[in-house]
Every structure is written in C-alpha cells, then in structure tokens.
Design goal:
9% strand; mainly alpha; two-stranded antiparallel sheet
C-alpha cells in the first residue's frame, strides 16, 4: 500500500525565519549616533529573510485552512489578499474576526508587513547626511530598532500568536511539532492546522501536540 506525503510550508518558513534570527545581533550602533555598517547589513539581510518567511508562514496557514479544513478545491480564493482570505474564512465559520483585528498580534503583523512591502517595492534611496550612517526609517519603523535579534523574536512570536488566535476563534487545532514532510500512514494528521473532527488522531501523538 502506498502512503501519501505532504509538505508543510508553515513549518519550513518558521524554520528558515528562526535560523536567520540566530544570525542577528542585538544592536546596530557604532556609537550613540551612527550605525555600524557591518552590523546593519547583517541584520537587514537576515531580518528581511525573517519577515518575508513569516509572511509566507501566515499566508500558507490561511491557505491550509481553506484547502484542508474547509475542503476548498478551487484557485480563486487562494489568489485573494490576506484580509480577503480572513474575511472569507471567518464568514465560513460564522465568526466575527474584529476581535482578531483589535489585538496585538494583528498590529505586529501589520507593522512587519509595511516594512516588508516598502523593501520589496523600494523607491527612495536617500537616507540622510552625516559623517556616518544615521538611523533611518523603512515602512515607518526605525531600522536600528526594528532589525535586531530581539525585535525579530517578538515579531516571530507575534505571527505565531496571530495564527493561534485565529485557530482558537475558529475551533481549529495547530500541530506545533509537525515535521516539514509528513506521511498519512499513522493517523492522517499531516497539516500544520487541522480540524480535529475530520481526523482519527493517535492519542499518544496528541500528547505531543498539547505540550
């Protein structure tokens, strides 16, 4: 009998983000006024990977709900914006997602998205004058404070908390310990987010999920 194998982009994206967070330093300063060019380049390089992968993580999370939990087999919904997908998902489950919009994880998501979008569509190259590189803004955030290890850890936690907040409001479950590649040979639990009612769960494995 052949088994099915599945790939979890959520887990892959988080793994990449966490790896690049580990490459970052805690500050970007040369002294009290100017930025250290080596620290800055390192932290922006790694931080850009982090926020880009976290964006992939969250959109994959929403797509998995649509595909696996709502059993949607089309393409139209998957091409919608993030907010359009959330609107549809919460309408499907007959829940009000305004409670999600009003909480800190959503504010973190919006902040990181503004920085990511400005970098992807980068237009303005001038950052300031001086005898060294001054602190400057991207997407409304000061780079010296935004692109640090601690800041990226908080943003990573914000994305994960946002996913958990959505899952809790919809009555869905997140398998935090899932692997990037999963086989349906045991209990059919192969997705990062799932509806427990649709799966025959191995209770011993469920203990891992709850840890």
């Amino acid at each position: 009998m052949a088994f099915g194998y599945f790939m979890n982009m959520e887990k892959l994206s988080l793994t990449i983000a966490e790896k690049h967070i580990s490459y970052m330093t805690e500050n970007n300063y040369e002294d009290d006024c100017f930025l250290n060019i080596e620290k800055l380049i390192n932290n922006i390089e790694s931080g850009f990977v982090v926020i880009t992968q976290l964006s992939c993580y969250f959109e994959s999370f929403l797509n998995t709900i649509i595909n696996a939990c709502m059993n949607y087999n089309g393409e139209v919904l998957l091409k919608c914006s993030v907010e359009e997908k959330i609107d549809f998902i919460f309408m499907y489950y007959q829940k009000d997602w305004q409670i999600v919009k009003g909480q800190n994880p959503w504010a973190i998501y919006k902040k990181a998205t503004r920085v990511r979008n400005e970098m992807i569509h980068f237009k303005k190259t001038y950052i300031g004058d001086g005898s060294g590189i001054p602190n400057f803004q991207l997407g409304g955030q000061w780079v010296a404070e935004f692109f640090t290890k601690q800041s990226m850890m908080l943003i990573r936690d914000g994305y994960v908390n946002l996913a958990e907040l959505i899952a809790n409001n919809l009555g869905l479950n997140i398998f935090k310990n899932i692997d990037i590649f999963e086989c349906d040979g045991r209990d059919g639990l192969v997705n990062y987010i799932y509806d427990e009612m649709n799966i025959n769960i191995d209770e011993s494995r469920y203990e891992e999920i709850s840890d």
